[in-house]
Task: inverse folding
């Protein structure tokens, strides 16, 4: 089948899509956007988190056909060219990135959190990111990164 | 350690700083190419057919239906393995594809290449295999017993290490015994096994793969492909975590075979379920300990018997047994030690390397015993540990004298003296459910919740031991590009997330006083770096990069000395040659012109010795590392739910070359120790894994992890580059017993098995020494 999706502001078409393919597979293997990661294929790890019509979802749990005519924003769509989004910048500076495989999903999830809740408490950060597994950091520096980004975005009036 | 001669360069982002990781921006933008992100024109997807049985004889394999499926390009079995159908890190005992017998559930039997991953999976499912199912050997004690069928030609014993020191029949006034069990932990890296093999015109293959040790892969792949080693060229693809699970081969030979057979690039990406079958796990253990002490709390003797289940193939079991034995009494002075550690073949999943590597299992045993001994003596558990702690100059049960800092007592005092976390809840004692055991499941309002505090301290060897020729190779090149001096560093060392790429650049900046440093991709075009394991890469590859930089620097300074007025020692800083007066006397760029200075150095740490086979005596380890934890937990004693409130750690790192990365390693390592204490276990029933998914195998989430205050000591090891001490593993070792001790303190439950399950907390028996609420 053919699937039409707006991805990171651009109309994209994927052809010869098998009905069983997920949005994640189409993004990674057909549209050249491997930033969203595949680590569990069952919505447990959050590594494939993307915005679907502005709602953060696990792209592995969305059938490609369900994304027809909708808008998707992936981790590749957050930076403005070489200028990182404040959440991306904070992750790098705070040491929240080790192997980095969980990072794209965590960044989209944290980006979504701070957009909804500009000054989250630690408990709110923990609850919001509980669907994103990280095996390297023990999460302390991820908390640092989200606090740092929230502080900076609050100071600058936030970004979309 | 001579900080003065090599570290005068004050170029920013050198060692001791925490510069931004060079791969950081790519990783946060989603542009870093992991092994699962590779793509090539016309590539095929691989899939693996695995045995559903833990032990069976294969009587027939029929591939016709699979081959007939449209889109399938190849179906290969053991008949198609061009070279030796065996691989293995220490013993080549594992088939690339099973021949007549399968020895574990998940053992690869056949591989497929097709034009779509789903087609490849469906084709694998169409392969018909006839099995005569055999009884599996699933218990290591049974595997060791006389009369049990041998799973391999040399029997079921992979290795037995004996440590014999002091009086063989010692006696002591206070004796405690215990039996302890460790479940099978998974490394659970997030980036599953994956890579792409591209056939080359010279009859060889180029492999892009996530691994821990490129050259040991290369050697094994070449043997199984039946080609010379130089025909297998490996480039490290982006690695999504490792923790030991990428030391053994997974899809490497399969992808190369299919690529060479089809003439097309072949990519494999395991799914999560397959990943649980695609790599080795941490050895489960059953351990019996007896500790004897004087009435004032001095250890007189330790007897230990440690049984490690190696599963179907040897992998690194031999070395794991060596660690469990030599580190089996912990960081304590024990005049009389009698330790037997065994590694066995069974039909359980193969076990091998995981962070902590044999030291984790033993630490749960000896630290549980130290708490039990403290209780028997009526002593404070930290005081008992401090009284018996090793220090520099202490003798290990192997006879090896610890010849650098061993601040075990200080680490324990540091975590003990940290302020305690506040009780949960507000002034009225009303707590947010997220702060209580059970969390947002809202299982308690605080009734039945008790707090406990526990301690653990551990010991780990750094780098490879027992006489292994452990080295790394670095090529460092200094040249002028665009009028600026630029350094490039080339090694085959695997960046697995730990930050080795950052560190290599820091070392080059410090040694050569040049800001611009490029770390070239790790590949087999340069000599072996050894494995990214055993907490060894900062030490060994760091040492190699440092040594190669020193060779480059010596040549640059010799060039400078030829053209400059004689007198005084020179060094490099800020792209200049600096005289001993501190004056810049030449510009490196001007001095070199188009001259390129390049040196390749193979660097080794001090040699170690094998253990005496009868007594286990010998200087087997190059360096010891230590960490201590204090855990504070809240336990719902009615439901057996545990919440770790705080996990404090103190660790000596010799010298923190990158303080941010050091703390990141300690926190991440502690998290894996927490997982083993309270949640993580591959459950194996009759040789079959019953929970191969992230739904059923739970690793800590951000809600499970507590704040982790860290104290880093920097007591230089004079034998190591910059005085550093390996960092990655010690925090994984001591976190687990500290948490278990805290749960015991909260509940009185005996808790002799990890991970702790709710029923162990709630249904503990009085004769276990626990409470019965």
Result:
């Amino acid at each position: 089948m053919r699937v039409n999706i707006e991805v990171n502001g651009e109309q994209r078409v994927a052809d010869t899509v098998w009905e069983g393919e997920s949005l994640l597979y189409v993004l990674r293997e057909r549209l050249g956007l491997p930033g969203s990661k595949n680590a569990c294929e069952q919505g447990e790890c959050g590594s494939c988190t993307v915005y679907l019509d502005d709602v953060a979802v696990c792209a592995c749990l969305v059938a490609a056909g369900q994304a027809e005519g909708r808008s998707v924003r992936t981790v590749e769509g957050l930076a403005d060219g070489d200028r990182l989004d404040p959440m991306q910048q904070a992750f790098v500076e705070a040491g929240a990135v080790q192997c980095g495989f969980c990072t794209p999903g965590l960044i989209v999830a944290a980006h979504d959190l701070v957009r909804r809740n500009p000054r989250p408490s630690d408990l709110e950060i923990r609850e919001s990111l509980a669907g994103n597994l990280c095996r390297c950091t023990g999460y302390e520096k991820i908390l640092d990164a989200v606090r740092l980004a929230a502080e900076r975005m609050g100071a600058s009036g936030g970004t979309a | 350690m001579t900080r003065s001669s090599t570290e005068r360069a004050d170029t920013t982002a050198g060692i001791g700083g925490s510069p931004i990781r060079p791969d950081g921006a790519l990783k946060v933008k989603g542009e870093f190419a992991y092994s699962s992100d590779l793509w090539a024109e016309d590539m095929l997807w691989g899939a693996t057919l695995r045995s559903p049985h833990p032990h069976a004889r294969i009587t027939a394999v029929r591939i016709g239906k699979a081959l007939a499926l449209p889109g399938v390009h190849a179906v290969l079995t053991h008949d198609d393995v061009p070279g030796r159908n065996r691989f293995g890190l220490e013993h080549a005992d594992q088939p690339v594809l099973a021949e007549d017998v399968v020895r574990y559930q998940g053992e690869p039997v056949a591989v497929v290449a097709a034009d779509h991953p789903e087609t490849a999976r469906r084709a694998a499912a169409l392969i018909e295999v006839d099995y005569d199912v055999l009884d599996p050997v699933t218990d290591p004690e049974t595997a060791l017993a006389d009369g049990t069928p041998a799973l391999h030609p040399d029997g079921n014993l992979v290795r037995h290490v004996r440590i014999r020191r002091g009086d063989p029949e010692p006696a002591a006034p206070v004796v405690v015994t215990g039996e302890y069990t460790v479940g099978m932990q998974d490394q659970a890296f997030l980036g599953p096994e994956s890579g792409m093999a591209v056939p080359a015109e010279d009859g060889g293959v180029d492999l892009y793969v996530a691994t821990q040790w490129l050259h040991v892969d290369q050697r094994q792949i070449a043997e199984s492909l039946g080609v010379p080693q130089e025909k297998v060229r490996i480039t490290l693809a982006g690695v999504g975590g490792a923790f030991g699970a990428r030391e053994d081969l997974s899809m490497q030979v399969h992808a190369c075979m299919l690529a060479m057979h089809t003439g097309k690039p072949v990519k494999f990406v395991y799914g999560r379920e397959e990943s649980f079958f695609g790599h080795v796990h941490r050895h489960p253990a059953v351990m019996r300990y007896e500790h004897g002490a004087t009435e004032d709390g001095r250890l007189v003797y330790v007897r230990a018997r440690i049984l490690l289940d190696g599963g179907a193939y040897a992998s690194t079991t031999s070395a794991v047994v060596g660690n469990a034995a030599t580190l089996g009494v912990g960081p304590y002075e024990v005049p009389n030690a009698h330790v037997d550690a065994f590694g066995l073949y069974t039909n359980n999943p193969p076990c091998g390397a995981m962070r902590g590597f044999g030291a984790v299992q033993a630490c749960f045993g000896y630290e549980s015993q130290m708490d039990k001994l403290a209780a028997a003596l009526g002593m404070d558990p930290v005081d008992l540990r401090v009284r018996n702690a090793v220090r520099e100059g202490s003798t290990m049960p192997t006879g090896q004298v610890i010849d650098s800092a061993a601040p075990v007592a200080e680490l324990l005092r540091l975590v003990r003296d940290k302020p305690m976390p506040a009780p949960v809840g507000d002034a009225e004692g009303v707590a947010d459910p997220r702060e209580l055991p059970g969390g947002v499941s809202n299982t308690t309002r605080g009734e039945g919740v008790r707090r406990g505090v526990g301690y653990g301290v551990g010991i780990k060897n750094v780098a490879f031991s027992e006489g292994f020729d452990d080295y790394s190779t670095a090529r460092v090149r200094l040249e002028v590009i665009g009028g600026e001096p630029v350094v490039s560093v080339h090694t085959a060392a695997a960046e697995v997330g730990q930050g080795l790429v950052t560190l290599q650049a820091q070392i080059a900046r410090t040694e050569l006083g040049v800001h611009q440093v490029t770390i070239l991709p790790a590949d087999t075009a340069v000599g072996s770096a050894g494995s990214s394991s055993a907490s060894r890469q900062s030490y060994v590859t760091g040492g190699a990069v440092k040594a190669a930089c020193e060779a480059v620097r010596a040549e640059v300074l010799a060039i400078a000395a030829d053209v400059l007025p004689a007198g005084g020692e020179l060094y490099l800083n800020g792209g200049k040659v600096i005289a001993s007066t501190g004056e810049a006397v030449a510009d490196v760029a001007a001095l070199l012109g188009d001259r390129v200075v390049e040196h390749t150095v193979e660097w080794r740490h001090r040699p170690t010795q094998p253990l005496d086979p009868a007594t286990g005596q010998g200087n087997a380890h190059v360096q010891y590392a230590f960490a201590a934890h204090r855990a504070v937990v809240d336990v719902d004693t009615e439901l057996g739910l545990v919440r770790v409130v705080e996990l404090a750690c103190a660790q000596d790192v010799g010298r923190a070359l990158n303080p941010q990365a050091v703390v990141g390693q300690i926190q991440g390592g502690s998290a894996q120790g927490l997982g083993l204490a309270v949640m993580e276990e591959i459950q194996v029933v009759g040789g079959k894994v019953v929970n191969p998914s992230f739904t059923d195998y739970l690793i800590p989430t951000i809600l499970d992890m507590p704040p982790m205050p860290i104290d880093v000591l920097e007591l230089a090891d004079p034998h190591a580059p910059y005085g550093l001490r390996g960092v990655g593993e010690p925090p994984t070792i001591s976190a687990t017993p500290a948490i278990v001790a805290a749960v015991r303190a909260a509940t009185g439950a005996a808790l002799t098995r990890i991970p702790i399950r709710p029923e162990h907390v709630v249904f503990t028996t009085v004769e276990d020494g626990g409470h019965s609420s």
Remarks:
- Residues 152 and 158 of chain A are 8 Å apart (CA to CA).
- The domain at 86-155 of chain A is CATH 1.10.150.120 (DNA polymerase; domain 1).
- Helices of chain A lie at 23-30, 86-94, 103-116, 122-128, 140-155.
- Chain A has a mean pLDDT of 96.
